Each structure stands twice: as structure tokens, then as C-alpha cells.
Model the fold of this input.
Amino acid sequence: MAASTLMQGTKVAGPKPARRPRGRRHRGEDLTKLLFVLPAAIAMIALFGYPVVKNLLMSLQDYGLRTFFTGVAPWVGLKNYSAVVTDKLFSDAMLNTALFTIGSIAFQFVIGLGLALFFRQRFPLGGLLRSLLLLPWLLPLIVSSATWRSILEQDSGILNRSLLGLHIINDPVPWLNSPSVALIAVIGVNIWIGIPFNVTLLYSGLTEIPDELYEAGQLDGATGWRAFWYITWPNLRAVAGVVLMLGVVYTIKVLDIILGLTGGGPANATQTLATQSYEKSFVDFKFGQGAALSNILIAISFVFAIFYLRSTRRAVDE
Done:
């Protein structure tokens, strides 16, 4: 009886041959997936991997203008990082970068969300107006900055002339020449450029919300702000997170707009990490220190990129 029971137990607890071919099938599927992404991975490494590695190596070398003639760039370890971090302009550049990024993102998102909600309403020529709204985004940034520089000129700019004509101001405002208002002016131009990006993505997110939800909400008394708070925002939150993260990653490294408007001045009032890196590399020809600043900027952007990837993954799961 005991032997029979033992034999039965042995039969039940025996090997599971069915799992082996199943595991092989999964490994085959994983290999197929890797083969599909392999060309993209090779392209990414070739196009982006080399510049990143080269920039990292330059930040650890005494890489200056002389290196182009002698080919010699001695290793200096973290000396370049120490030099840029202890520079008296670094703290100002960090603060300006934070103010520029937060100010731009906040207003771009709020104005973009308001316009996206406005264009969700159906009215004549709505599609044409949405298309015209994309113009600031389509213009090359250097063209936008040159145009706004002419608008913000203290004596001949159309903005000061309009404000004087409307008796809003008594004297022309030195938008780009005063350290107290230059950063505000640069942030304002960047807000104008970034609004179409926010409108486009947020409007796409709004169109994905079924009208049936609003119709059901109206029956429960959810109209106006209550409809926005209980229906629109919960369904738009994933898209809004992606828009904000992308906006931060893009804005934190903006260079051409600031160079075109103020060049980092006056008195370094609009100096950011991006413009400081440019000046170290192409004005002072201290390429090692410029590369160190770029790597600091990459590290900050990488943190926000991780949040972006997590947001997109969560949006896909939802």
C-alpha cells in the first residue's frame, strides 16, 4: 500500500517535459525581437554614442585651441568639472537656467491647455486657426529670435512704440539691454515659441476623450469647471505629464534663442548653462571646460528623460 502510494507520488512529482519547448519558443521570440531592434540600436550608437563618448573624454582632458595643432590633450581628470563648478558665473547660470525652464514651461503649458480647450469647441475656421497657430513652431529659431529682437528694440521696436502710443508706459523699456528685465523678455519669447507644441499634443489628447463622458457628466451636473476637473483632467493627465517632461528636456538646453536675443547679456543676466558651455568652447576655446558643462547639462536632462520614459510607459499601460 505504501509502495503503491510512493509510486503514485513519484508519478505526480515527475519532470515537466512540456516546459522545455515552451521556454525555447519564448527564447526564440525574444531573439526575433532583438533582431528587429538591432538596426535601430546600431544607428543610435553610431549617430549619438560617438559624440557622447567623445564629449565625455574631452571633459577629462586639457583640450584647448593648441590641441588642434599639436594633437596633444593631456588627461586632467575632474579638473575641468572643478573649474566650471567653482566659476563665479556657474551659480548664476544654474539659477537662470532654472528660472528660464520653470517660467517657460509653466506659461507654455497653461496657455497651451487653454488654447487646446478653446479649439476643442467646433466653430467655423477652427482648423485654419489651428494651422496658423503652428507658424511660430515652424519658423527656424534663429529667425524667430531675430524677429523678436527687432520687436523688442528699445528705441525703434514696435512693442515700445505701441505701449507709448497707448500711454501704458512713459519711457521706452530696455527689454534686452537691462539686467532686470532681459531674462523676462527672453522667457517671454521662448513661451511664444513653445505654445504650439503644447497646443498640438494637448489638443490630440483632448480629442481622445469620448463625448459620451461629457454627456453622462451633464446628467450628473458636471458642467464647466466641474466637467474639466472630474472628466477632462483625469483623462488628460498622462498626456500632460509627457508634455511637461518633454518641455523640460527641450527647454533646459535652449541656446539659439538666447544667443540671438542677448548673447547671454547684459551683464550675464541671461547666462544659462547652455550659453556658458558655448562661450567656454567657442569664445574662450576651452573645449574641455565646455564639454564638462555640456555633460552636467546632459546629466540634468537625463534625470528628466527617465521621468519621461516612466510617464510614457504608464500612459501606454493605462
